[in-house]
Amino acid sequence: MTIPIPPVAGTLVIGFFLLSVAIVPLALRRSALPARKKKLLIAAIVVSVAAKMALATLGHNFDLESYQIVSGLMEQGKSVYANTNRYNYGPIWAPMVSGLAWLSKLMGWDAGEGFHVLVAAFLATIDVLIGLALAMAYSHTAAVVFLLAPVGLLISGFHSQFENVAVLCALLAWLIVRGGRPGPAALVVSAGLTGLSLVVKHIMFLFPLWLMFWSPLGKLRYRVLYAGIAYAVFFCSFIPWWEDPASRAGIVNNVFGYNSTYGDSTYGSSLAPMTVSLFLPIRSIDASFQWIPVVRRFKALWMGLMLAAGVALVRRGAHELFLLYLMALYAFTPAMAEQYTAIPLVACAVFHESWASWAFLASGTGLLLMSETNVLGPLHSTIPALVIVGRSYPVVKNLHRSMIVASQICLIALLVIRWRARTGSGEALPIQAKLVRSAALIASGGLYSLLAYAWLAWRKT
Fold first, then answer.
1. Three-state SS letters, 302-360
2. What domain range includes position 197?
3. 287 pLDDT exceeds 70?
4. Of 132, 245, 246, 387, which sits 20 to 30 A from 414 (CA to CA)?
């Protein structure tokens, strides 16, 4: 493509920052919040943005290097799908990141942490918009919890993955139809925003299928239309690259056919594959699904589990289907990467009164602090491993694995609580009781993880 994308995208990024600065006072002025709460929200916004930009100065990881590769290809006018396997998303983020790189150079910042700070500023601004949406649609406290939660600070700040961009689009789409029975225009706009979320990052790929069973969206033909529009936006976004054989192969292999690692991997472990491995080798399941094109291996079983969860929640009459989807996606994911902790953050902020939400925020923070790819990563090599019966056990790595499983169990607990409550918090507990339950849940998740790993390790010997 011969269009000078970086300068155009960079100009749009500047416009986005200016528009966001204008949106904040406008949204606060239209809000019904009392003056004291507005001041607290402004303070939370300032602290959130400053903290995320400060964390970005402390170093970077593999993902930022991928952004540099992508921005370099865009600057040269090359296809990111044909020339790298480190871009597994729709075509929106590539010009965004190239625009940020162009703006970084324009400001005289280096291509390392200078570029990183700008990416973090962009993601922090997205978080501000999510916070404003939460304050207006749910509660002031939900917005403050979302903006100041350490999970969000560490992901948007240091890790700088962009799940929050996809979540913002999907959240706005949900708020349009949340009340049920939307008009034709509202339905189309919401479906378009859901499709845009998929183009950014396809974490919401199964949500339109959940909505197929959600009667408040309207008659069946309207629900089918909604899903059709969302998926059409996603698939049609690849049309400009489809005629190029190399780009088409990259899209099929790296986007549609992307399969992350799972089980005992460099990313840590995930609850679902680890539990299945206790009874049946994952490889045998992989072999059973080889006949399915593109979507293969354990991922097919996960998709079936997610769809079953959606149908069960809809039939139960559960409220806030979008928030429940974000929690289920993290709880049942077949593979774990640490940026996934940002996905259910919106839901935990809304359900901040629940002790299970507290438990997730605590275990998710522990997961990130014990990660080798986050802000404290360089310190991990200084912590010696334990030697038990002649075998070496890396302390931090095993604690990291335990916190992954614990955080997923916390969200399963929160899903069960929401299943039982339907409306309201359903938990009239004093703070002390919530803290005790949160600690017990995290400890039980960690213990389960350690016992499961011990069993798997013994079985291999």
1. HHHHHHHHHHHHHHHCCCCHHHHHHHHHHHCCCCCCHHHHHCCHHHHHHCCCCHHHHHH
2. 161-237
3. no
4. 132
